């Protein structure tokens, strides 16, 4: 039997200490941002500080379950996109999109470990 499926390596493996350091660093910065958000006098900028902390905490959580450097870089890139979206939406005061992003960003972060666990299951094999 000839197997036509080519399994390509997704690149270098992400070392667990690097993932752990990124997790701890992002959570520490997120906690500090949560702590100083009430000191910001402009309420729109205060909301942006809280939302930035939310993104950092979510990306830090997701990085614990990432196995490859390329996937980690993509995760951080999507976090940067989320921060830019929060900047635009918070300063424009579009409440519906702010709350949508506040729900979707942590949800995507939770999908990473769920996807990792679900990849181990074979249904039709």
TrEMBL record:
<feature type="transmembrane region" description="Helical">
    <location>
        <begin position="73"/>
        <end position="92"/>
    </location>
</feature>
<keyword id="KW-0472">Membrane</keyword>
<feature type="transmembrane region" description="Helical">
    <location>
        <begin position="98"/>
        <end position="118"/>
    </location>
</feature>
<protein>
    <submittedName>
        <fullName>Uncharacterized protein</fullName>
    </submittedName>
</protein>
<keyword id="KW-0812">Transmembrane</keyword>
<keyword id="KW-1133">Transmembrane helix</keyword>
<feature type="transmembrane region" description="Helical">
    <location>
        <begin position="18"/>
        <end position="39"/>
    </location>
</feature>
<feature type="transmembrane region" description="Helical">
    <location>
        <begin position="45"/>
        <end position="66"/>
    </location>
</feature>
